[in-house]
């Protein structure tokens, strides 16, 4: 490969990992990360500017999650968001990236009915938004839905463990796969790998189960609230950057205090306006 097919987002060519970093992340690169024992990061994104920031920061995968229902629309559940709504966010994220792999969730109700419905919805995300892969909450019984989408040429990330679209069936936001239930999660993961999923996202399960899963699977795993043994980790960006002032799940680590930063800036702007110190002369236009 020629030199310009590489970028060095982690700090220059002296960094071996960066020197080997591809220009555009594809699903086979995530497989290579797993095969070589290298971890990778995923963050959610819902608009072009944040997507561009994360892309340039070297985040390998951006997820246009149905968590948009919560953090973009103020809903308490992910069930309400529609395909047409999530398509707008997905298209915006695609417009903001050069390098990150963009994965879009399929919204609740848009893929559970039949494998055919799953293919038709996934095709819309590929065609109308231009995403690179889709994510589906799935288990062993819905592996045929995943297989149908994969057979249509669309990469699928399978989401197992706690699957928020099933919150009412699962009895709320609860850790999955404890004790004897671990076997079902492993069985789901193996079925979805066999169906052709390129990656398994596992949410809110005990850390030991994630270690067992990552060892049992050929394909990479991405964890959220699932310990440290997965190949990758994902967080919702508003949680991670401290914009969300709701109750945060225990698995969130806050890396910044954006809500404070933005509040301070808003106060300063308002004060300047009220006191008449903004705009200054330098922000205006001369008569000639
Ligand atoms: N802002 C946001 N962050 C997320 O991580 C997220 C969303 N939205 N929306 C979609 C799903 C739903 N997720 C969630 C949301 C809440 C909990 C939660 O409240 N967990 C509690 C209880 C866990 C237990 O003890 O069983 C916790 O304290 O972690 C977990 C997962 C993860 N996803
Ligand atoms: C929390 C992540 C994994 C997700 O599914 C979403 O953002 O919708």
UniProtKB/TrEMBL annotation:
Family, as annotated: Belongs to the PanB family.
GO biological processes: methylation; pantothenate biosynthetic process
Record InterPro entries: Pantoate_hydroxy_MeTrfase, Pyrv/PenolPyrv_kinase-like_dom, Pyrv_kinase-like_dom_sf
PANTHER family the record matches: 3-METHYL-2-OXOBUTANOATE HYDROXYMETHYLTRANSFERASE
Binding site for Mg(2+): 66, 105, 137
Catalysed reaction, written as an equation: (6R)-5,10-methylene-5,6,7,8-tetrahydrofolate + 3-methyl-2-oxobutanoate + H2O = 2-dehydropantoate + (6S)-5,6,7,8-tetrahydrofolate
HAMAP family xrefs: PanB
Biological function: Catalyzes the reversible reaction in which hydroxymethyl group from 5,10-methylenetetrahydrofolate is transferred onto alpha-ketoisovalerate to form ketopantoate.
Co-factor: note: Binds 1 Mg(2+) ion per subunit.
Name this protein carries in UniProt: 3-methyl-2-oxobutanoate hydroxymethyltransferase
Encoding gene (name): panB
Subunit annotation: Homodecamer; pentamer of dimers.
Entry annotated with the keyword Magnesium: yes
Species annotation: Nesterenkonia salmonea
């Amino acid at each position: 490969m020629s030199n310009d097919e590489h970028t060095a987002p982690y700090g220059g060519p002296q960094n071996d990992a960066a020197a080997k970093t591809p220009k555009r992340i594809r699903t086979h690169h995530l497989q290579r990360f797993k095969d070589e024992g290298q971890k990778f990061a995923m963050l959610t994104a819902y608009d072009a500017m944040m997507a561009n920031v994360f892309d340039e920061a070297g985040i390998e995968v951006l997820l246009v999650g149905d968590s948009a229902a919560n953090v973009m629309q103020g809903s308490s559940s992910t069930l309400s968001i529609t395909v047409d709504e999530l398509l707008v966010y997905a298209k915006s994220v695609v417009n903001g990236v050069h390098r990150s792999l963009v994965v879009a969730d399929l919204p609740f109700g848009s893929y559970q009915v039949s494998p055919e419905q799953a293919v038709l919805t996934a095709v819309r995300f590929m065609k109308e938004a231009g995403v690179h892969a889709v994510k589906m909450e799935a288990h062993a019984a819905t592996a045929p839905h995943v297989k149908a989408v994969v057979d249509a040429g669309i990469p699928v990330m399978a989401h197992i463990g706690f699957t928020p679209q099933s919150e009412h069936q699962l009895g709320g936001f609860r850790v999955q796969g404890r004790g004897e239930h671990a076997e079902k999660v492993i069985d789901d993961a193996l079925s979805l790998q066999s169906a052709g999923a390129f990656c398994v996202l596992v949410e809110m399960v005990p850390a030991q189960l994630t270690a067992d899963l990552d060892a049992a699977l050929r394909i990479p795993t991405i964890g959220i609230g699932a310990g440290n043994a997965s190949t990758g980790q994902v967080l919702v960006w508003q949680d991670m950057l401290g914009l969300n002032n709701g109750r945060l799940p225990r698995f969130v680590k806050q890396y910044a205090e954006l809500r404070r930063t933005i509040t301070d800036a808003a106060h300063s702007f308002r004060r300047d306006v009220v006191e008449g110190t903004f705009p200054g002369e330098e922000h205006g236009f001369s008569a000639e």
